[in-house]
Amino acid sequence: MRFLSLLILSVCMTLSAIGQEQDTSYGEFDVRPYPAANVPASPEAAAFIALFEESNVGNLRVYAHHDDELPYNYPFKGKEIPKAYYEMFSGTYRALLEADKAYAYGIYSIKGNKAEHYLVRMPSDKGPNTIVLFDLNGEVMEPVQVLAYAYCKGDFCYQQDSFITDLDGDTDLDILTKFRRMEADDEETLVKNDIIYLQGDDGSYQMVLDNELRINKDAYNMKDVTFE
């Protein structure tokens, strides 16, 4: 009987040790646990995810600043992404980051229907603080939606804000983008455009027609931006 008890104790200790090795194999798991459906593909991916602040978004207005001098209270500064991670981006975004003096900042990770979505602030042809929504597929950051930008070119200034919230009452986080083009001199609005994107069960976003939802889009106000 004593031998059997010692054998059972030995087996339990061995299984416990194996479980501990599995729990810490990604380094960040012991301090930042992940849902079973969203386990990072590698230690590198786990370290990258740790750059983003987890945010329980309910109704978030995302807006950009038009120049390099960010206001002290700007809420989307984020944490600088080391250049070693730039290879996780692909296509146009990787080319933008590999340009001289480029930068990228991880802002928030937010809940998606399939996995988390990631907000990144980076330069683009739409201004120095373009905010883009990405999905992480393995070790590749795949662009989902340009959320916000603000910049001037020639006689006009352009701004897009996004609202991340539940728009159709199904508790999923959807996106409303609001765009305007203004005169550069007096900032009079010349063109306005609103687009709704609903999140599907697979985490993707689909554009919907205005008449399909009863949404008071005027209740969502864009950020007042003063272009100088």
Structural notes for this entry:
Strands 1, 2, 3, 4, 5, 6, 7, 8, 9, 10 and 11 form an eleven-stranded mixed sheet that branches. By secondary structure, the protein is an alpha+beta fold. The protein starts with a helix and ends in a 20-residue tail after the last strand. The protein contains three helices and eleven strands. It is 16% helix and 36% strand.
Topology of this protein?
Blueprint: H1 2-23, H2 43-49, E1 53-55, E2 59-62, E3 79-80, H3 91-97, E4 105-110, E5 117-124, E6 127-137, E7 140-153, E8 156-165, E9 174-183, E10 189-199, E11 205-208
Parallel strand pairs: 1-4
Antiparallel strand pairs: 2-8, 3-4, 4-5, 5-6, 6-7, 7-8, 8-9, 9-10, 10-11
Mean pLDDT: 82
Separation of termini?
Answer: 84 Å
**pLDDT < 50 stretches:** 2-36
Structural category is alpha+beta
Described by the principal axes of the CA atoms, the overall outline is: globular
Q: Biggest β-sheet, characterized?
A: 11 strands, mixed
Order of helices and strands: HHEEEHEEEEEEEE
Give the radius of gyration.
Answer: 22 Å
Total beta strands: 11
Strand content: 35-45%
Instruction: Give me the number of helical elements.
Output: 3
Q: Which percent range fits the helix content?
A: 10-25%
Q: What multimeric state do the chains show? A: single chain
